[in-house]
Fold this protein.
Amino acid sequence: MDSKKNLFIETFGCQMNANDTEKILLSLGNAGYVTVETAVEADLILINTCSVRDKAEHKLYSTIGRYKAFKKNNPELVIGICGCVAEQVASNLLKRLQFVDLIIGTKNIHKLQSIIEDYKRTKIRRTFTGQAPIEDDEEFNSTLIEGFTNSKGVVKATLSIMRGCDNYCTYCIVPYVRGSEESRSPESILGDVEGLAKKGIKELMLLGQNVNSYAGINKISEKISFTELLKKICNVRGIGRVRFVTSHPKDISDELIMLFGSEDKLARHLHLPLQSGSDKVLEAMGRGYKSKEYMTTINKLRTLYPDLSLTSDIIVGFPGETEEDFSKTLSIVKEASFESVFSFKYSQRPGTKATEFADQVPEDVKKERLERLQSLQKEITAEKNHALVGSVVEVLIEGRSKVSSEFLSGRTECNRVINFPKPSDATFFEAGVFKGILVTEACKNSLRGKAVERSQPC
Ligand code: SAH
Ligand code: SF4
Ligand code: F3S
């Protein structure tokens, strides 16, 4: 093995970034790189960055400094910054961090292999950001899937169906760092799904910043909606469960809502970011819906599917948010009774509209609101988890549990981790199998269970 091909990669941010890291690992793996556990062993260090909040961006600066010294012992060491901060700050990063060799934006990952080879030859520090056709990405993806051997017996995978975002919510940097919205062609997506199914993947998580506005064009120039695409994906043999993120409340269609009733393979889980319960704040955020409309969707879903798990994202302390606005968020959180919520303090992002808004909320107020929201949600989540005790849930077995080697672990349809003692007939409980598990206990971050015969959705 070539001793100069040890790769260390660090990933921050959302599933989109995690998916990009998967692609980087496969592509550089094909070029002979092996992943190492610690940065000090590496000949190539990559940091896949996120810039959605100030704190996320700072993770880059607090991490990267320590790699500078490694170059003294290993002059051949190559350091690259990928992801959303790379796209956002680009050439400034190269100026500011003299020990960094390459900046590779979100749309240039398919070129990474050749970018690194060229750098090793020329030693010219460079920035690769900006546009690249979506077709290049699609071709790259299918080549990677063809070559993927799944030697570890992984049973679930993520698949990006679109890129970018056109919504320009006033707080959000994503459209600036991921570009405008583009949908992949249905044929290319389905080719990837079939490829993954052949490699033993049972559960798919489809990714897009706003999957409800998916509008792929097929070979005969017809527009395919997200619901139509989902139906086609669910028809692929071997795929047993399909999830997706993220849905924008303004674009969720009745067809999609109805699909939860007719498509068994669709996981009974919907992530529907609310952001705020105040109409004034929602308008200033540019979200395109009112709290009442949001609740109409939630009520429709809860009535049709009492077993559906609903999760959300909320921002506290958006500019101009008063105590009264915030109390509207708390009431809607109670009313919607989400299974869980990702909550964030508003963070000013360079170049976004809301950064310029007057009435920025002081940090201590944001902190206090976040704590109140999180403690309310903690109670709701605990109640929801306890309510599952005694029911049988359908679990995709993923393998040995982290808790103990005597336990197996899997995920419920609602994406909760469940651990259960390895049954005596363990051969029926291999990774990749769907089984009914009786929930016996609700722990803080997971469920405990026991294997049973019968299975039904959670
Ligand atoms: N496309 C997805 C989410 C992308 S970012 C959607 O529209 O739902 C994930 C979450 O980060 C957002 O839902 C939002 O809650 C949060 N977020 C985005 N920008 C933020 C900012 N400037 N400050 C705090 N939270 C932010
Ligand atoms: Fe950001 Fe809004 Fe686009 Fe989501 S929909 S990525 S929050 S701009
Ligand atoms: Fe972060 Fe980029 Fe995702 S900014 S949240 S990694 S799209």
Summary: The longest strand covers residues 392-400. The longest helix spans residues 363-388. Residues 52-53, 171-172, 174, 209-210, 246, 248, 273, 275, 313, 315, 344, 346-347, 349 surround S-adenosyl-L-homocysteine (ligand 1) (CB under 6 Å). The chain is about 35% helix and 20% strand.
